[in-house]
Design brief:
One of its GO terms (molecular function) is structural constituent of ribosome. The protein has 105 residues and is mainly β. It has no helices and 10 strands.
């Protein structure tokens, strides 16, 4: 099945402490069905000192389950479901169900 949410998409969080916030997908973890979203589900971790990094407490994104995310509608930025449409030239594109706008190209 084709992916409804891809890297680089803007998504809206549906549940949890970051409900209503939106951000860009940084990475998709297909094996766990989770995604990393910029600025969402931030956690603080203790970092050991290395040659490249200083020691201290760093904030970074934790993975969030895909079922708690919805694609942001390109028209108004609100959460929308994703559909698929085959165009006349044979390419399959994602479509926002809320407004009917194309998400890809």
């Amino acid at each position: 099945m084709a992916a409804k949410i891809k890297k680089g998409d803007t998504v809206v969080v549906l549940t949890g402490r970051d409900k209503g916030k939106s951000g860009e997908v940084i990475q998709i973890l297909t094996s766990d069905n989770k995604a990393l979203v910029r600025g969402i589900n931030m956690v603080r971790r203790h970092q050991k000192q290395t040659q490249a990094q200083e020691a201290g407490i760093v904030a970074k994104e934790a993975p969030i389950h895909m079922s708690n995310l919805a694609l942001a509608d390109p028209k108004d930025g609100k959460a929308t479901r994703v559909g698929f449409k085959v165009q006349d030239d044979g390419t399959k594109v994602r479509v926002a169900r809320r407004s009917g706008d194309l998400i890809d190209g």
